[in-house]
Design a protein that fits this description.
This protein is of the alpha/beta class and 720 residues long. The protein has 3 domains: 3-10 and 300-395, Orthogonal Bundle (Fumarate Reductase Iron-sulfur Protein, Chain B, domain 2); 44-296, 3-Layer(aba) Sandwich (Rossmann fold), CATH 3.40.50.10420; 461-717, no CATH class. 50% of the residues lie in helices and 12% in strands. The protein has 35 helices and 23 strands. Strands 1-10-7-4-2-3 form a 6-stranded parallel β-sheet, with helices on both faces. Strands 8-5-6-9 form a 4-stranded mixed β-sheet, with helices on both faces. A hairpin with a 4-residue loop joins strand 5 (202-204) and strand 6. Helix 9 crosses helix 10. The longest helix is centred in the first third of the chain and has 21 residues, at 20-40. GO terms for molecular function: 4 iron, 4 sulfur cluster binding; metal ion binding; oxidoreductase activity. Pfam families: CCG, Fer4_8, LUD_dom. InterPro entries: 4Fe4S_Fe-S-bd, 4Fe4S_Fe_S_CS, Cys_rich_dom, FTHF_cligase-like_sf, Helical_ferredxn, LUD_dom, LutB/LldF, NagB/RpiA_transferase-like. Residues 304-334, 354-384 form the 4Fe-4S ferredoxin-type domain. It comes from Desulfosporosinus fructosivorans.
Length: 720
Amino acid sequence: MGDHTYKIVKNKVTEGLQDMESRKGRFRAFDAIRPAMLKMVPNYPELSDRLRKIKKYSMDHMDEVIAKAQRSLEGKGCTVYLAETVDDAQRYIASLIPNEGLVVKSKSNAGKEINISHYLEDRGVTVVETDLGDRINQLAKCEASHSLAPAIHIPIETITELFSEEAGTTLECTPEALVVSARKGLRNFLVKADVGISGANAIAADTGSIFVTENEGNIRAVSMMPKVHIVIAGVEKIVSTLEDAMQVVRAAAVFGVGQDIGTYVSVISGVSESLDPDLEEYSHGQGPKEVHIVLLKNGRKEAIDAGFKESLYCINCGSCLNFCPVYAEVGAKYGYKYLGGRGLVFAAFHGDLEKSEENGLSLCIGCQRCQSACPVQMATPAMLWKLRQDAVSKKGLGWKKDLVFSMLTKPQTLPVVSRLATTFGKLALKESGKGMTSRLTFNSLGLPQERVIPRFSDKSFTKIAKPKMIAKPIKKVGFYPGCVVNYTETDLGEALLHVLGENNVEVKLAKEDVCCGIPSVVSGDLDHAKTMALKNIEIYSSFDIDALVFVCPSCAVAFKEEYPKLFAEDSPELQEKVKKLALKVKDINEFLIQDIELKPPKQIVTETVTYHDPCHLARSMGVKKEPRELIQKIPGLKYVEMQDADTCCGFGGSFSLSFYELSQRINEGKLKNVADTEATTLATSCPGCMVHFRDGIAQHKMKQKVSHVIQILSRAYGRR
């Protein structure tokens, strides 16, 4: 990402962070939707896997299901138009509407994709949005800020002013009064409309049935009151069978708003059969005389060919937005046409990688909450990382990151940097109760004066570490400390050696390490990542060990998941070596609970502890219960579970350097949950999270200590 693009993104982030009114609206919606969704999803344990299979089959057989749907729809009297481009779709739709005609339109993401409302208005057509949220946006002359709740950014007082002006009278500022006014205002448009435009939640290829689901009833009116009904849908909306389409509709309700089914579900299977052929004049409300289905190709085939097929599994339920920490803080500033990370993929597979970069490609923090909340388990972060690779291959990495990642590939470089930072750092840094703070402001490096950063160690962990000599070990493990432990959190490395020594586990250390490569991977820089990975693979594959343990889950994910991907097309010998090493990867919490019989700690620890789940550990590695089990084995310790323990802390490595204010805003919500527990110690299992929490705690003048689970366990084994 170049300096110019970075400034564009930074300005968007700043605007999003400053718009506190929109933020209030988003969080009001989240407070209602998130609990309902989390309560409803367990009632349908097989729905997500079933839906993913349905969507995968449809995309794997795209040409076949399109042809089948076209035959079925045309057999029901519908007209099907396959639009290769946005221009094709716009021109065809405009040809169906009389000059200065009246169009009533329901909410349609595909309609927004082709910008149909503005296109028609520019040609003298009156377009009236009938979805309440979209109608509010239309009157306010602003864009949607959520796929299901498009006007959550507008306060009710403003909405009252807009509707009062339209109605010509002062309305009561209550939701009930506004809904009544909106219905009255829309009724006249619906009766007089020439054309109704809607989207589609799903199209069943076998029966030629179009499914739309809603909670207001406006889509039903749009689809039956005007004499012409136009449906705009991407070809990915087509599924094989009527039963498959019902699964899509159910999933949209369950995952989108936490309902078992939408309030209204309409199934449109052709033109109205109730029309009286003897009537000369069309009577509104009989059902449409014409139904036109505009199927958008518009880059979908190119997306599949480029490796983004999974993006077409999306059912536009908005669940990913409801759980994305970046969207929560900056709203519609993140995404392009389709909001959030999926919108950035959308922009790129339409051939506009620059639009993707300018609208937040660098903002995904990789927490994977979108993926875990998605009804089709869409791997949006992985697709965004792939787009970053494309950007790096086309434009380069940029000299700053290239310099840093080059340094991280050389084992001899970081110790020199660490010594320089220790020796000369005090010229730019000063002591803080929690670490170091800047004497000067380095905002371009993510280092404002108030930011607390870790102290650099005089010597790296690998230089000072002395693993306990064990005559008859129960297990032999290698330990990969990672950059943070090696150069700033050396005490965490010492704590791990102590805990494993107490449990008669032999530990082997490398004489020198390079970075795990995960910062390069998420930046799209695979060249440096592969260089780092190869060095680590050679070092640790030579160890005679039962497991390779980690205190940093990001490093563990690099070895376990990213290395096999990096070398998936290399020699079979290298692939086998990588696979064997990946199988030995264990987070330390996982190892202590699953692989050995843990020695009971005896030392009483009088602390009240709460626990934060690191994103890579909880979602990528599935390790959640093990840290809690370890904490609760410690005598004297009181454990308190915090609300939303698995939400992101906002660190994200280099993300917190590039977008520090956003990173801290995400962290604030987490710290509030910590404070609510009244814990004296915040425990976690990630050195990066520890660094970020210490900074946030210092900024907010909180008193909690921050410790890795292993440090607390080490204290319970008597280490001071």
